[in-house]
Design goal:
Helix content is 74%, strand content 0%. Helix 1 runs antiparallel to helix 2, helix 1 crosses helix 10 and helix 3 packs parallel to helix 11. The longest helix has 35 residues.
């Protein structure tokens, strides 16, 4: 089994995956024609790759206490921060749309946040996209528990199958109005898969590729990775067309996971093939994933409001190329904030200040 190692540099292909996933998430949240094939496909597959690389990057922790402490700080505190930031925007939007905000109305999103974005008669989502933070927290915790067991991989397999069944049942019966639950059961298997890939040494970086012969092998591997990635993504798209038109519901759900498995494979292989291409902007967006996740809905809302007022239309929708431009513009606007937070407010990125890291390592 391959041990986890401390990287002197970031893993470039993972930065590519994270930055691309984040851009697509922003794109998908822009108002557009919901039945467009490209939107349905991207919305169905992109988060699986994000959770795969999150599982791939996971380092093992020896105790429950260490897991809860580390990921409580890195994920649950930012979850609360980004919902607190979102609340004034929600309040202003609600007031504009309804003309008033009652005490009950104002408390519902607060309760919903504390209940992890639960939608009921007494609660509602606030910054709904932040569901991934508590879901990731649970995934890290469960993965550490499994990894401390002799047959942890078998436990992961059983839990994955249970979650797949729960995802299908919830989609059919709609018994859980709970976006965090829905996202967790949908994506847990891909987090497990990424973690198992890392433990097996798949895609681990070469220790030394400076020798000419090694470079030739590496270059050949990168071309093969690109080819596999392109072919696998095409296969994923073709299978998705079958998935959305399949009337047999159990087969429909099975195809969903097959499509996502091929999409994850395609995206990982594609960007593994582009590993030699390094761009600072990709690294910055990857580092700032949490900031983009936490704030992009506010910026989309402001852009929508401005466009509707300027163009004198209601319920604006965008074409695909307009959503691409909006997603890129939002990420570009957040890059300065990412840079500042990396230096002064690392908690916004789910990280501890450098002094606390040093004390933790020393301890």
């Amino acid at each position: 089994m391959c041990n986890f190692v401390t990287m002197k540099e970031r893993i470039n292909w993972i930065d590519w995956v994270k930055a691309t996933c984040m851009t697509v998430v922003v794109l998908c949240h822009c108002p557009q024609q919901e039945d467009a094939f490209h939107l349905q496909y991207l919305a169905s597959v992109i988060l699986s790759s994000f959770f795969f690389v999150s599982g791939y990057l996971k380092k093992p922790l020896a105790t429950n206490g260490a897991t809860l402490k580390k990921y409580g700080y890195a994920l649950l505190i930012p979850y609360l921060i980004y919902n607190v930031i979102y609340y004034p925007y929600w309040f202003a939007k609600f007031y504009i749309e309804h003309g008033a905000v009652s005490l009950t109305d104002g408390l519902k999103p607060i309760v919903g946040t504390l209940l992890l974005q639960l939608n009921t008669d007494f609660s509602c989502e606030l910054n709904g996209v932040t569901w991934f933070l508590p879901a990731l927290f649970l995934m890290h915790w469960i993965t550490d528990i499994c990894n401390r067991r002799k047959y942890g991989w078998l436990l992961m397999l059983i839990l994955s199958l249970i979650c797949i069944i729960l995802y299908g049942a919830n989609k059919f019966y709609h018994f859980a109005p709970f976006i965090t639950f829905h996202g967790f059961v949908r994506c847990l298997c891909f987090f497990f898969l990424g973690n198992l890939f890392r433990k097996s040494g798949i895609f681990m970086e070469q220790e030394d590729d400076t020798i000419e012969a090694d470079f030739k092998i590496s270059y050949l591997d990168h071309k093969i990775y690109l080819l596999i990635g392109i072919v696998t993504l095409i296969l994923s798209i073709l299978l998705f067309d079958w998935h959305i038109n399949e009337s047999n519901f159990p087969l429909h759900i099975i195809l969903f996971y097959v499509v996502n498995f091929f999409s994850v494979s395609g995206i990982v292989y594609l960007f593994r093939g582009l590993d030699k291409l390094r761009f600072r902007i990709i690294t910055v967006i990857s580092e700032g994933t949490m900031i983009v996740f936490g704030l992009h809905r506010i910026l989309i809302g402001i852009i929508d409001f401005a466009a509707e007022k300027l163009l004198h239309i209601e319920d604006i929708t965008y074409n695909w190329y307009e959503t691409v431009l909006i997603a890129v513009a939002i990420e570009a606007a957040l890059i300065p904030l990412i840079t500042v937070c990396r230096r002064k407010y690392p908690i916004m990125l789910g990280k501890r200040p450098s002094s606390q890291k040093a004390l933790s390592i020393a301890a």
